[in-house]
Design goal:
The structure is a homodimer.
Chain A lengths: L22 E2 L32 H8 L10 E4 L1 H13 L3 E6 L5 H7 L3 E6 L7 H8 L4 E4 L12 H14 L2 E5 L19 E6 L12 E5 L2 H14 L5 H10 L4 H24 L12 E2 L6 H12 L1 E2 L1 E2 L9 E4 L4 H16 L2
Parallel strand pairs in A: 1-10, 3-4, 3-5, 5-6, 6-7
Antiparallel strand pairs in A: 2-8, 7-8, 9-12, 11-12
Helix pairs in contact in A: 2-6, 8-10, 9-10
Chain lengths: ~350, ~350
């Protein structure tokens, strides 16, 4: 089965995810529409000249109202959270990064591309193991956390986040907190991790269902990090596209009911897929945020490939996310499709 | 005059360029409108989902029709030419880059950020000195050329470009050709530098006056470079914003008369500023493309600062571009403003 050797990244599924007979638990993007406010009244001919590298003032000001003790100067508007992370690690530029594992599949690459090195701490039941964290943090310049997490769907407890604030503050270690799923928590309000050493990355992609628009941002109270990141962005991409910034600012004006309504839809889907997979006898963590499950399966490569070729179900390999004994399913699809997908997985499991 | 110590980058002028009494020869962006085709009929609600990292197929296909012996696979759509360059140098990742001097001010930074080192070859009358080029090329992995050039406004002769093709092809050295001003040549048609080792970077910003939209592209016939750049972009920014790609594709459908009409306007402005500065006794090269002049002046820092504070004229320091005895003027403003600016420069020169 040499085809299995090609299972190196999600790109093997490119072009197939939208096909009729395919049920895709692959790509992690909302299938729901953005708020109507995001696109109403945009005049794209206004947005054609260079903007500030740091991002449009109005958008940064609006964000500062949502972050405690912030001003517009603490933010940079980026090409999605991806560029935010890339700028941060390039700005730090050397040393080791403590990375909880499983991790979002781009993290080790972004860290390596910036000339830094990943040190892994294995999650325990999908959550940070503070004992292991404490053992490894001393050799690191930074730690990268992601709560709610892609691919585990888990959130860290507020106690853990406060403990991380405390440890890293005392040791002067950067905390890079990727919070792109902060508005997709089922269990509690988001907790803004804080401190002089904290750098937050966020995005409009998931909260407002506008992934292709590519607008994210980073926040830091450390002016030297903000300045270095702006300097790098000046040379490597200049301003983030202005139409997208315009849409982001308008999306923020949507009523909070939009976000609540989204959360309710995601929670229903989460309940459906979690119960469905448990009923099939799979071992998995219950997602508390984001929209991913990461069940353990036997021989994941073979299983994923058979699911795809024989049952036309797309899933992602856990090994891309540092979880070699699992597969990842995104439940960003409607309940009817989730049910059909569960039926096919049932068949596949029965016919091993 | 300690204020002169702050003259470290164009950012000192941020927020001033649009003010009433200011004549700005600073920022390098067209003041002319984009073709109406660029923005007509766009439905931004169609462009909200993730796109291909490499860029939308239709846009890449349209570009391939303009490049000899190309297919859509040879292109990556990027966040402006800046990201194109950043991806290329990160994909190459080590070694030295031969860089003609004066240079676009981001080049040394992009090269350094990618972990590479710049080796300079001084331009002769604003053009590549092939003798010096030959002496220094052997220690280099790549050469970065920019014709028409920002900041010199000069173009390389077709003979020089063919000689560079020949040298680099024999020695297997990458040629990165930044051609963002290729449609702004006053003297001849653009010559597409070619070869297996050539990587071209381009943009819709200058040709179609849509800088803030941030859509550029890179072209290479070397599949391994294209693949590596896509891999890096997957982790560091994902797809380029889709509304911008949509606008770029529509702009390409504008009649060629749009580009010709723009060239005529730029040529008139070039004639005006070139003659004007010569008449003031300044020593400068005649621009053959782009929209910059780079006159030599005495004590450039003091002169630039006095021009700005006393005469409200913005210019950029040559030293930001590797030309410490010069200042750069962009003539992306209408003839009336160019004339007013020339009058003020005249006064400033007389009152030294």
């Amino acid at each position: 089965m040499s085809e299995l050797d090609n299972l190196t990244s999600p790109s093997i599924f490119i072009g197939r995810q939208g096909e009729d007979d395919i049920i895709s638990f692959g790509s992690g993007q909302p299938d729901l529409p953005p708020p109507k406010e995001a696109t109403e009244g945009i005049n794209i001919r206004q947005d054609l000249r260079y903007g500030l590298i740091q991002g449009e003032y109005e958008l940064r000001y609006a964000l500062s109202r949502e972050y405690p003790r912030s001003t517009a100067e603490n933010f940079i508007i980026t090409n999605g959270a991806s560029e935010g992370l890339d700028l941060i690690f390039r700005a730090i530029g050397k040393g080791k990064v403590l990375l909880p594992k499983p991790y979002y599949y781009s993290y080790p690459h972004i860290i390596r591309l910036a000339g830094m090195e990943s040190v892994y701490t294995e999650l325990n039941e999908g959550r940070i193991d503070l004992d292991d964290f404490r053992k490894k943090i001393d050799e690191c310049t930074a730690v990268l956390i992601n709560s709610p997490s892609n691919p585990t769907g888990r959130i860290e407890s507020i106690e853990t986040l406060k403990e991380i604030e405390d440890i890293t503050s005392r040791k002067k270690i950067y905390v890079i907190s990727d919070e792109v799923y902060k508005d997709l928590i089922y269990e509690r309000e988001n907790y803004h991790i804080q401190g002089d050493q904290v750098i937050t990355v966020n995005s409009f992609s998931k909260t407002y269902a506008m992934c292709g628009v590519r607008v994210g941002y980073l926040w830091s109270s450390d002016q030297s990090i903000v300045d270095k990141a702006i300097e790098i962005k000046t040379h490597t991409s200049m301003n983030t596209n202005l139409v997208g910034q315009d849409m982001a600012l308008r999306a923020m004006k949507a009523p909070k009911e939009y976000i609540v309504a989204q959360q309710n839809i995601w929670r229903e889907r989460r309940d459906l897929i979690y119960k469905g997979l448990c009923d099939l006898g799979l071992d998995l963590w219950k997602p508390e945020g984001a929209f991913y499950v990461l069940p353990r399966v036997d021989r994941p490569r073979e299983f994923l490939w058979r699911l795809y070729k024989k049952y036309h179900v797309i899933t992602y390999l856990g090994e891309w996310f540092g979880a070699p004994d699992r597969i990842r399913l995104s439940y960003a699809l409607d309940k009817k499709d989730i049910e059909e997908g569960l039926n096919r997985i049932d068949l596949a499991l029965k016919n091993i």
